[in-house]
Amino acid sequence: MAVVDAHHHVWDLSVRDQDWIAGPDLAPLRRTFTLDDLRPEARAAGVRATVLVQTVTVAEETPEFLALADGSDLVAGVVGWTDLTAPDVAGTLAALREGPGGDRLVGIRHQVQGEPDPAWLLRDDVRRGLEAVASAGLVYDLLVQPRQLPAAVEVVSRVPGLTFVLDHLGKPPIAAEELQPWAGRVRALAERPNTVCKFSGMVTEAAWATWTTADLAPYAETVVEAFGPDRLMFGSDWPVCRLAASYAEVVEAARTLTRGLSEDERSAVFETTACKVYGLPAE
To answer: Which domain of life is it from (predicted)?
Structure first.
């Protein structure tokens, strides 16, 4: 089965610090990770294309990622960052598209999970930015905690012309073995037709050293049921996943968790949903 990895990162610490990598638990990530590091692992897993996702709220990162994608036979799309609250979001997006690799820009993301205001997404200036993203024909990746899902549900309704992609299932508390209130909030989000969910990030929400596929199953089943395979897309979250699992282990867990689906449904999760939502080229 061909695979599109709809969510991974790279960073070069000689170019820019990743200030979110702090504390001894994250020490394995405090090194440079490049496409050359990813390529053999992705190819071994049958990955034919990927989506490179922003890591920091620094404007320079997005054009760097677009230029990197432009010279890559692996990265088919980039989800970048821009300040949604800035007065000229539309102009910034247009400039990005005019630069090297601009045709690889498929979406925008902000680390909403780090915003102290749980209603940040509902601010008027943020909504104007989201409307500019929609007007540019791009997708918006939602990186939120469960506490921010109610605001996400509301903003998705307020900007119906924009496709919202929920990263990492909305970060459910897998290690704590708690389904609610996360499950109810995710189902409410899935009721909105302009939402999609990334089948990603589960292993790092579980107990890193001891997780099993059975631990992930209730959360995977919830989103499969809520969104359906046509609105789910696989993502590795490499190299962050390495805190809990290798690339191969993440892919195998996803395959195990979707083995009850038909062949066409699994193809949607592992390839065609990402191509459709992000406008990636078919193989």
So the answer is: Bacteria
